[in-house]
Design a protein that fits this description.
There is one protein chain. The chain has about 220 residues and is of the alpha+beta class. The protein folds into 2 domains: about 150 residues, no CATH class; about 60 residues, Type 1 dockerin domain. About 20% of the residues lie in helices and about 25% in strands. Helix 4 packs antiparallel against helix 5. The radius of gyration is 19 Å and the shape is globular. The two termini are about 30 Å apart.
Length: about 220
Amino acid sequence: MKPARKIISVVLAIALIAAGVMSVSAFDIHVPREEKYRDSIVPRLGIEIEGYPEPIYYELFEYSNSEEEPSATPDYVLVFAASAGLTPTVCEGDIFGDYVFFSYSIFEPYHLGLHIYLPGEDKLYTLREAWDLPVEGIEAVFTEYEENIGRRIGDANGDNEINIKDATEIQKRVAGLLGTEEVPCDTYCYNGKQKGYVSDFNRDGERNVKDATAIQKYIAGLEY
């Protein structure tokens, strides 16, 4: 029997930043935020800047890989922290395995503003660093965190599934039958470069009918 993953979702309510700079995160939930590890994390990030408003800081998710009840010390904590954010003209994102993380803002001084803190080891990583190491259980950030900080590549309609609806959605996009206001963000960039598409199911760097065909083959259990 696989160890049960005990997960505690904690928090966040991202809204505005004063001083004329507004920052809206990709997260859109309204529950009390946690700050259990703030004193261990914030001083290391350099996000407290004189003259700036209070840094953005939220503890989003605690992960513990255990058969027992969650211990007082989780294996890791997903943290969102930044000094300020600016809204870009397109979605910012980055690929993590089969998932793309989206944000509608660029955060300073860390691109995505996401960090992984290991309380037991007192170690702090960006989400990218934690993924690349990898930190044990890091995939749970995308597969088990209930607020879904990422979209699976190929999930063109944003319903958290890969099915025939996505193939149809891609065909409509390619044919120009969907306006950007009607559908989830599909185009993303990283630091203003390396544009990609959530719809790029076959990972060839383009969004076209081949992706719709690949999804149809995937659904049928065929090699694509």
